Amino acid sequence: MKIVVVDHVYLEKEHIQKLQSLGDLEVFDEPAGTDDELKNRIKAADIVVVGWSHLTRDVINSAKNLRMISIWATTCHYADLQAANEKGIVVTHVPGYATEAVAEHVFALLLATIRKLVLADKHMRRGDFDWRPFAGIELSGKTLGIIGTGSIGCRVAEIAKSFNMKILGYDKYPNLKKVEENGMEYADLHRLLRESDIITLHVTLTPKTEGLIGKKEIAAMKKGAIIVNTSQGKVVDEKVLIDALKSGKISYAGLDVFEDEPPSVNNPLFTLDNTVLSPHIGFHTIEATKRCSDICVSNVVNFLKGQLQNTC
């Protein structure tokens, strides 16, 4: 049994030992530079553990022995599911492991933007204690629009309730039980865009959600609205967002994800003072990464026992 960890997945000693007990283990600490390099890494693999690399149809078809792909992430888009299905390859993921981490990061980004913390920090480090340029806004009484009300979106709503915010939610499959618990009101997308002071995104990346927030959607928002994205970069049309940030249509953006990752060093987002940016770290707490690895390895163990769990 050949098991290959193809990129920088966070594995502790116990996870390494467990995988070694299951077969011949090979671990790569960084993503492959090219598809050919990725193909070479998995050419003899029976099981692949992947955290960041994209296993395209071409890559999957090159791996003649491949039986399972264990994705070290909530999302399933790191593997071409149709190609895997055609070859009878089982694909698993780790749902729900980072709910607390990501929900808390939403508010880290949001509070950092509306209180201008990054600019204030730079200001202080230059030796300037003039507080007048840093008037912020309060969350209390504001309307938060949550697009995607799965586990993370609902946890964001619970936290928002403690800030005394009005909460609107949009989802193709409303969680009506959570409405009663956190006071969220479901609305159609147009109403949510029109009425929300702050919009936070919590949808998975699919052909239907790619570009979900584009020119028409941003035009429908309030002037001065705030956008927080901790889901997937391609859910938002980045060029349109940049234009809206420059014009003031969008007052602030807190972004943990980007259309291209890593983004180009010339990305215009880096030049804007009304953004707070982080390198896709919403999931990255000590607790969440340990939880993710536990479940990711457990998916492999149970696959070998013939007991499938967390399939995509």
Architecture overview:
- It is built from 12 helices and 12 strands.
- Strand 9 (198-201), helix 10 (215-220) and strand 10 form a beta-alpha-beta unit.
- It has helices at residues 13-22, 35-42, 57-62, 81-86, 99-114, 117-125, 151-162, 176-182, 189-195, 215-220, 238-247, 286-304, and strands at residues 2-5, 24-27, 47-50, 68-71, 90-92, 143-147, 166-170, 185-186, 198-201, 225-229, 250-255, 275-277.
- The longest helix is centred in the C-terminal third of the chain and has 19 residues, at 286-304.
- The protein has 2 domains: 2-97 and 286-304, 3-Layer(aba) Sandwich (Rossmann fold), CATH 3.40.50.720; 99-277, NAD(P)-binding Rossmann-like Domain (Rossmann fold, 3-Layer(aba) Sandwich).
- The strands form 2 sheets. It has a 7-stranded parallel beta sheet, with helices on both faces.
- Helix 1 runs parallel beside helix 12.
Features:
312 residues; alpha/beta; Rossmann fold; seven-stranded parallel beta sheet; five-stranded parallel beta sheet; 12 strands; 37% helix; globular
CATH architectural category of the largest domain: 3-Layer(aba) Sandwich
Mean pLDDT over the residues: 96
> Which H/E pattern describes the elements?
EHEHEHEHEHHEHEHEHEHEHEEH
The CATH homologous superfamily of the largest domain is called: NAD(P)-binding Rossmann-like Domain
- Strands side by side in the biggest sheet: 8-7-6-9-10-11-12
In short:
With 312 residues, this protein is α/β, with parallel strands linked by helices. It contains twelve helices and twelve strands. Helix 3 links the parallel strand 3 (47-50) and strand 4.
